[in-house]
Amino acid sequence: MKLYTRTGDQGKTSVVGGRVSKNNARVVAYGTTDELNSFVGQCVTQLDDKLFLDIKAELTKIQHELFDCGGDLAMVKETEKLSYKTSLEMIEFLEERIDCYIEEAPTLERFILPGGSIPSATLHICRTVARRAEREVVQLVEQQAEYNPIVLTYLNRLSDYFFAAARVVNFRLNVGDIEYERSGLVFKNGKRKDQM
């Protein structure tokens, strides 16, 4: 089997249901989920088994789910033979883990900067790439293209998961979060004041 096919040399690529330009909003969105998956994989390699076996398992699960998201985004139309894979159960799992990590990490009062430790910084990269993927899926919505709406919610929740996990990673490593030095008190009991 050859790795290269030459079929994309003129700027077109295949999606489930036809061929489109490589800068098509659908391709851009699933390309960013692929980029995100790579950063998640990098983070898995940075985490020690003794302290982070739970988070490593979750991140591996998320890698499979991001592949599902990419597959759903590559599907021009759901059919009887091809159905969407991203599910509400995936979102519920993320929410449960976010709630646990908020309880584990120190109370958040101010905005923080990405960093502290290498794996925490990588999780913040994951968070921002997830936000970009979310914005790109919104472009599909605005074009009234068919898509799995659960993917948009999943990416939104996933960025919150990465934020919560990044803080727990620093906490378990006994590394403090880096507070944004010009931040006032923005959070109360770990929640933003404008959300209370």
Automatic annotation (TrEMBL):
<comment type="subunit">
    <text>Homotrimer.</text>
</comment>
<feature type="domain" description="Cobalamin adenosyltransferase-like">
    <location>
        <begin position="3"/>
        <end position="169"/>
    </location>
</feature>
<keyword id="KW-0547">Nucleotide-binding</keyword>
<dbReference type="GO" id="GO:0008817">
    <property type="term" value="F:corrinoid adenosyltransferase activity"/>
</dbReference>
<keyword id="KW-0808">Transferase</keyword>
<dbReference type="Pfam" id="PF01923">
    <property type="entry name" value="Cob_adeno_trans"/>
</dbReference>
<keyword id="KW-0169">Cobalamin biosynthesis</keyword>
<comment type="similarity">
    <text>Belongs to the Cob(I)alamin adenosyltransferase family.</text>
</comment>
<dbReference type="InterPro" id="IPR016030">
    <property type="entry name" value="CblAdoTrfase-like"/>
</dbReference>
<protein>
    <recommendedName>
        <fullName>Corrinoid adenosyltransferase</fullName>
        <ecNumber>2.5.1.17</ecNumber>
    </recommendedName>
</protein>
<dbReference type="InterPro" id="IPR036451">
    <property type="entry name" value="CblAdoTrfase-like_sf"/>
</dbReference>
<dbReference type="InterPro" id="IPR029499">
    <property type="entry name" value="PduO-typ"/>
</dbReference>
<dbReference type="GO" id="GO:0009236">
    <property type="term" value="P:cobalamin biosynthetic process"/>
</dbReference>
<comment type="pathway">
    <text>Cofactor biosynthesis; adenosylcobalamin biosynthesis; adenosylcobalamin from cob(II)yrinate a,c-diamide: step 2/7.</text>
</comment>
<keyword id="KW-0067">ATP-binding</keyword>
<dbReference type="GO" id="GO:0005524">
    <property type="term" value="F:ATP binding"/>
</dbReference>
